[in-house]
Amino acid sequence: MPDNHRLYFLDWLRILAFFLLILYHTGMYYVTWDWHVKSPHASSAIEPLMLLTSPWRMSLLFLVSGVASAFLLRKLATVTFIRERSARLLVPLLFGMLVIVPPQPYFEVAGKLGYAGSYTDFMKLYLHAYGGFCKEGECLTLPTWNHLWYLPYVWTYTLLLAALAAMLGRERIERAGAALARLLGGWKALVLPAALLAVIRIALKPHFEETHALVDDWFNHATYLPLFLAGAALSGQAAFWRELERLRFAALGTALACWVVLVACHRNPEAIQAWLTPARVVWTTCQWCAVAAACGFARRHLSHDGPARQYLAQAVFPVYILHQTLIVCFTQLLRPAALPPLMEGIVLVAMTVAASFGIFEIVRRVPPLRPLFGLKMRAAAMPATAAQPPGQADSRVVS
Description:
- The protein has two domains: 8-101 and 145-377, no CATH class; 102-144, no CATH class.
- It has 16 helices and two strands.
- It has a two-stranded antiparallel sheet.
- A hairpin with a 2-residue loop joins strand 1 and strand 2 (138-139).
- By secondary structure, the chain is mainly alpha-helical.
- The chain has helices spanning 8-28, 47-51, 57-75, 78-100, 103-113, 119-127, 150-168, 170-183, 188-204, 218-234, 238-246, 248-267, 269-274, 276-301, 307-334, 341-363; strands at residues 134-135, 138-139.
């Protein structure tokens, strides 16, 4: 029998991973990697810190999203499950593409292409799918979902999970999860997933660019879909999560060692070409071992509920929707002040967090706004934790 008790530590991980995006996307303004807007102080200085989370951040989110989807599928009929997921994912996606995201490409074309039109002029082009914002043979696709690409991916994987449950039966999926948990016992919990991810990266990465466009993003699908389905299958397998807790220090040490190698490779890109396959193995080992370590330490230290989790679980999805646009807009607001990069970065993070939570506080009090940010129309009552049976808390976070 699967363990249907709520995995609070995964709720905490999901909250922390989403909030990590604020730091990561703020960092993207200051590194040399391509992004929507760039700081005049952009350099490689903090790129090693960015590499600390780059391999595993989204992998963790897709794994946890699979777990959350499986728990919900156990409670709902398949049709109801699809309808609920569609409303909670697609409505914010469409709203985000029409209202939240457009300032990002506007400031992007203004900064990179010298576009001098007003925001109103840009929105007319945006809504008419203008394809003339081009540089060096590459054109900006409009409308766009930018950082919201995670939503259509999770929605698509959710439909596939529902289809598998309908075709195979939920009992078969539970049995498959139990078999997978047995297979991933001991050292194999770290080695086998990393090996699978390495095969995928070695076989597909050279041939498929990461587009985040859903329809042609085959490398990312090959990476994230197995993690999502594994999360769904293993959601009720308590032995697997205990195993990750037991292996947490080994996983963390391996991930950090691989990160050191990745930083060395990043500083010597010529060497990567000579050792491309081993470098990809190191990347995927870091990718999975970091996920395993995060799950293991979270299970050890964050397996509890309380008002903080319940509040943050509501806030995290609206904050995710808002954060990148706020970062981009605040970079333009702060640019005339010419602050030192470190001070400016701290101010950017503080402003983004404050504005995100300020908007969330408004949204959660206005019922018509709630569905636009992934919340239910009516806020559910939050009973005291002591009176709450295991597995019955509603996190109200979309994943």
